[in-house]
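Sequence in, structure out.
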Amino acid sequence: DVLVLGHHGSKHSSAYDFLATLKPKLVVASAGFNNRYGHPSKEVLARVQALNIPFKSTVEQGTLSFVSRNQEMVLYTRRFERTWLHRNL
């Protein structure tokens, strides 16, 4: 259902045919904000858009958390929270 792109969504991470065959319900790219490589790449974003696959990126949405609630998967995003400062005990 959810495909996490390889190598932060670099231009060679996911070919069009691969995405078309897999047909994920959501594609996720994990990349640092304002990264020097421009990940996720414009080429991959164009492929995902051409296939009408919903897309989320940590660059835009921040931390992405998938939580199971009453047999349903819920996606939470936290863009402006500094979650790395919180300690879970």
